[in-house]
Amino acid sequence: MFDLTTAAVIYCLMVAAFFLGLWIYYDRRDHARFDAERRRTIFHCVKCDRVYAVRGEPLEADCPACGFKNGHLRF
Questions:
Q1: Could you tell me if 49 and 30 are in contact, meaning their C-beta atoms sit under 8 angstroms apart?
Q2: DSSP string, 27-68
Q3: What is the model's pTM?
Q4: Alpha carbon of 60 to those of 23, 46, 55, 74: distances in Å?
Q5: What does the pLDDT read at residue 75?
Q6: Domain boundaries, the chain
Q7: Which has fewest Cβ within 10 Å: 16, 44, 66, 74?
Q8: Which H/E stretch holds residue 70?
């Protein structure tokens, strides 16, 4: 059926495809996980003049110093 060389090549290709699949899976998983963590929105408090950042993309957030609700900065 198969000689030893053909079987070895097929085996090596299957192992390489398996590890390539694992690499792609974990790379996409880690990228999605850390992308959400890195994404921040910057706010400037008009009451106490403090600049702060909040995770995610909210349109409004409370100032951590004075509690005033501010809109996000638009550049």
A1: no
A2: HHHHHHHHHHHH-EEEEE-TTT--EEEEES--SEEE-TTT--
A3: 0.52
A4: 38, 13, 12, 12
A5: 67
A6: 1-38, 40-75
A7: 74
A8: strand 69-71
